[in-house]
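Bug report (template v2)

What were you trying to do?
Predict the complex of my protein with flavin-adenine dinucleotide.

What happened?
Run completed; filing so the output is reviewed.

Input:
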Amino acid sequence: MEFRPGAEEETFRRAVRDWLGHALPPGWRDGTFARPRSAADRVDFARRWYRTLFDGGWAGISWPVEYGGRDLSARQHLVFSEEYVRAGAPDLIDVGVGPGLVGPTIIAHGTQAQKERFLPAILRGEEVWCQGFSEPAAGSDLAGLRTRAVRDGDALVVSGQKVWTSFARYSDWCILVVRTNADVPKHRGLTFLLLDMTLPGITIRPLVEMTGVAWFNEVFLEDVRVPLDCVVGEIDRGWDIVITTLSHERASVTPYPRIQAELDALVALLGARPDQARDPRLRQRAAQLRCEVEILRLSTWRSLSNTEHEGRPGPEGSMLKLLWSEIEQRLFELAFEIEGTHGLLDENDPAAFEGGRWQYGLLWSRAATIYAGTSEVQRNIIAQRVLGLPRG
Ligand SMILES: Cc1cc2nc3c(=O)[nH]c(=O)nc-3n(C[C@H](O)[C@H](O)[C@H](O)COP(=O)(O)OP(=O)(O)OC[C@H]3O[C@@H](n4cnc5c(N)ncnc54)[C@H](O)[C@@H]3O)c2cc1C
């Protein structure tokens, strides 16, 4: 079991570091680059930056070579993430659904025509995707979804509602799961679609989150005609494809490099305030977080090592998800306390520390124990698949 990168990974690390050293936009590192502020500008910037990554050979690096990737190992992917975060390179969350979830799903289940049509555009950052899975009455119990699709000639006609669809307003395409058969057990009557977001009958309404930002959306579908060549796999057999997407969602979320960087920033915040730095309660919690982030690092490497030996991710993915999401929340709670009354300032207030990033992070971190499977769902998986307990 390998907990550390080997010589090959270190060579790879240097290549990533060298490339990032000259490819980042001028002024990015010293903060003089005018960073995009509105959501639309951020998405536009992320598209262009993803194109730069593609041109440099760093887009879809774990995809097979035949589909434009480099077929690199999960360990190399993690090294890439470590260096990417260390360099403070641009956040790719806005364009992440395509390369992280959609591409691997189409590679595994798509037709040759779907692969040729969609994969190059994802890798070049030309088309942004969103994920239309959750509904008002179907989140953890996703197979209970009710958005219906009925066959009519060469199309499926879709009606229903999705919710929490991140980035929908800026997306060109959406992976959509619909019910095509209500007369069979719920997992068996689902179909997986590629939805062109410009089709008539689609209405998108933003939902403002408690951070003040509106990434989320409601997506209403009214008699939307989706051509049959946009069905992935077979009609009524979409559940296996959903599982592929979800397993990539969980596997692609290995945020320990980001959490390590947040901890370093928190320690700097604490160290710069002598009174708080001497407060035993705050020091103890910072030290505890240091131990937990190290456990997260080791667990991440161990999980990758297990995946390499077993050929697929195991239930330890749920342990990792539980671990990092709860560490992230504790980290921002501590930072907020260190800030004291400064934590109450708006991010636009010049007196706010570091542009208000800690109070924003505190609010955003509440989402970590919900998306990609809630903590309760992860504990259920661990209880059943690791501890061998019966279903609850
Ligand atoms: C930041 C963020 C981004 C998201 N982006 C998207 C997106 O782009 N596309 C998309 O489709 N969805 C997205 N989601 C939605 C997300 O997938 C759902 O919120 C999640 O699956 C939980 O579903 P729910 O909100 O309906 O809660 P529910 O499933 O209704 O759960 C409510 C509560 O009940 C608990 N619970 C449910 N079932 C069980 C059980 N069997 N045992 C014990 N406890 C249980 C849950 O843990 C939770 O605490 C996003 C969510 C967040 C927070």
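What did the reviewer find?
The mean pLDDT is 92. The pocket of flavin-adenine dinucleotide is lined by residues 130-134, 139-140, 164-166, 367, 370-371, 374, 376-377, 380 (CB under 6 Å).
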